[in-house]
Predict the 3D structure of the following.
Amino acid sequence: MNLPDFSRLCIHTITTKPWPIETAAAKFSAAGVKGITVWRDALTGRDIAPTGRLLRDHGLSIVSLCRGGFFPALTAEGRTKALDDNRRAIADAHALGAPLIVLVCGAVPGQSLVESRKQIVDGIAALLPECRAASVKLAIEPLHPMYAGDRSAVNTLAQANDMVEQLGSPFVGVALDVYHLWWDPALEAEIARCGQLNALFAYHVCDWRTPTLDLLNDRGLMGEGCIPLRQIRTWIEATGYRGFNEVEIFSTRLWATDQDEYLKQIVAAYRDHV
Amino acid sequence: MNLPDFSRLCIHTITTKPWPIETAAAKFSAAGVKGITVWRDALTGRDIAPTGRLLRDHGLSIVSLCRGGFFPALTAEGRTKALDDNRRAIADAHALGAPLIVLVCGAVPGQSLVESRKQIVDGIAALLPECRAASVKLAIEPLHPMYAGDRSAVNTLAQANDMVEQLGSPFVGVALDVYHLWWDPALEAEIARCGQLNALFAYHVCDWRTPTLDLLNDRGLMGEGCIPLRQIRTWIEATGYRGFNEVEIFSTRLWATDQDEYLKQIVAAYRDHV
């Protein structure tokens, strides 16, 4: 008898946003989930190191901390403030015991994407000493082009790979989220390139619904949409990737449902579609 | 004194959707607009050839007919139906006196983008005899990746250029809309390539708002958003393009305003931002 393999199933705290992190940890663990990615808002009001211990005591691997980034700003002061916030994130990740921070790199309406991209590379470069000291890596997450206006000037895997090459540090890689990249005709080739760069640090799954009613909070559970999840996972694993498959879903609709039922649906969708 | 140059200003009928085409023609003409692109819904219940004469009598160039396409389907029957509809569009464009049809190429949830792209190329190829006979060209419009689920499997200018090369017909080119492509780091290079292919058939302008509240009907008037319109127009004109600059805006917000005032705003925004 083949038992379903949940050894690489990770869920982001934001996926079950109504649950405090302590509840999420207990419920995930009881459902056989093996990894957790922690959003910084879930740590509000907690002591961070004990929260990390709590997660590990539930048998959960702490996969990453979400999120750093937002490097570009119109003023030098704004960019310094962004770096300070990223340094706090590195310290928090270290205290939590998370080996990785996912970066939503940022974009500023009224500033060219070219300039924002330069500021992103400069910002990441400035953090590398802290990364080395804390043993915390950074993952550039290319965001869907619909977020190029105000959330990220990095919108394809090719761009993220270019930045990884440019930065040339083992502490800088890529978080690949199918929601952002599934449409890209260059995806298979750029996944292979990312693998050759040893830069595939994280893999996020969900689905794209048609119609999509909201640009931010209408993601689908795996199987509810049109993303070829099995195809993309094949490409990912062809690079040798054996990390977690992380379920990251922002959904006003799903947050409004019973979260215990929803967790069951996540586990079933992972088994059937990822 | 330099008078503003409106000789290449075209407006799509859908931009001022509340106006019947006869009203739009009179108002556009009185405002100094020189071109009109006709959406097929604007022709409902009209005799087409006389409508074309009416537009020309107002001094308007008929720039294109919007829209054909939607080639992919899960069944052969569905694909045949799509071709029939495109043949009607070619006949309508011929009757209207429009030299060009803009193609929204189509995509089907549940069918791979690779298969949809193949069906798009096959569909366009099947129409070429009718195009030649009617002297009507086809423009592939790459759509924003947020429409890859159900509207178009062609989402970058590189893909559209590839299809133009593959089809190798002077009747097949590209309609470039800044809304769909402004974020693409390859845009400048692919515009140059499109020019070298003699395939830049149409240029559509509007703006990208942050936040964007609706995936379909929340486009901005030029100057309301973050698209570098002057920069892109420089790239366009470097190819030798001297066609119309077409204002195509879907906006529930702007359709709800006084359309006479809105037309004044369009003309001013064209002068100041395009």
